[in-house]
Target: Multicopper oxidase CueO
Amino acid sequence: MSMYSRRQFLSGAGALGAATACPGIWAATVAQSGLSSDEILRLETQAAGFSNPLRLPGSSGLFGVLPATDFKEVHVVRSEIEVLPGQRTPILAYAVESRGKKFLNPALLARRGDEMRVKLINHIDQPTVIHWHGLSVDSRNDGNGLNVVAPGQSMDYAFALQDRSSMYWYHPHAHGYIPQQAYHGLASLLFVEDDDEAALRKELALALGESEIPLVLQDKEFDAQGRLQYAPSAAQSFGGWVGNRLMVNLTERPRLKAGRRIVRFRILNGSNARSYRLAFLQDGKALGFYLAGTDGGLLAQPLRIDQTFLSPGQRLDVLVDFREANPTRPVTLASLPFDPMHQEGGHDMATMDHSQHGATQGAAALAAMAMEGDARALMRIDLAPSSTPYDRRLPARLSSLSAPVEPAGAARRIQLGHDGKGHWTINGGVYDHTAVPLTVQRGARETWRIENAERSMPHPMHLHGFSFRVLERLGSPAPVRSLAGARGLLPQDQGVVDTLQVWPGESVRIAIDFSHPHQGDQDYVFHCHTLEHAEAGMMMRYAVKA
Model:
């Protein structure tokens, strides 16, 4: 439970009301959420001391920008970088050499229709594999963990990028090793461009790394030598690993300089388990911004909001017009306080391991999870005059995305819960790599009703192979309901998504089109993207029959 009490939050956590009559506008003010100007100013004061330059994509090195077609021979290696100032941190990384330059975890740039030809070579002492998160590829190339690359071995990928423009990402997916490998660095971004994306960049004069800024949010824990710590107790494995230090692009206490213009932020929650309640703050209040896109690309039109939740695995595409801000004061990107709603029922997590050491670990796990909903400053943004006059305006339409259509027929029921023995479950079962408990037909259009138990935790559910649309939320807890519009939908529910946060007691209906161009039967997984939850059983195979 957050130190900001659940009762306080439920009594005042508002922000986004129902959509107003003005298209593309979501009514919202943080002042209505119960967060006072003084509390907002405390977050701004916290960010005032941030001084580390935000790590941005460059032409090489860590997060260097690389054409996806040059991402050909990829080596999984152990390396080290400076994360904390003055200290070297061992990490895992995807290493690439291309055209005389060396890259670690390169940010890939691609055009819809590009062909990917990748050889993955594993140099570490654990099995691994690349999962292309959000991409609609055949199961052989999906990297779903059913086939992995053993130490010293290699695997070839070959597929076409057929998805809408968006910021996707790639990370490991070898069951038994997913959380620790991702936590230690194996992850990066993949930008896919199409005509809608190119038009938006031209309209707003956006440039990656300058006025278009990718932000990867993570929480880490370090020892005195700057080495990453990851050794979850039973309680932390059940609840999810929450680090005590917040990072943006592997930069702690980051500072960014931005022009007084429309700036685009492409945001990924790359944490193992932590969710964020994001807002841009200045002078004791929240700045409105525009939600432009979600996991699977641009919305039909921008939505004006002033805060939103972001759960593990999810991405947001937001536009902030800093001409609306006070040019003499910095802007703070923050996570506002919220109740993380850890309602696991019969589990006394501090005593899951009854040894003295285990009880101490359990208490530490509870304390760490209490931090998840704390108010925290994430980044300081200093405003400066743009070098050239900027008179661009946000377009009224961003893409031709149509409204979702509900498939005919009864909904397929998916129940999320736990077995009371430290395992998370889907439809009462825990992950078994030999079993395929769910089968659908190629070309089927289905409605799934995903129900989370009342005594549970939030679960960001990720579907491999296909994206989907959200139709309705029912039974949402008050903090979520207060952010919703018609049919209980949150702003990010308006887009194409591949990862869906389902809160305790909530029932969410989604529409999935299982059409695909691949040959033969396909074999994927559906799982919670709180990575420890997936390892603790909340994952299942599903087959798409030709």
Summary: The mean pLDDT is 90. The radius of gyration is 22 Å.
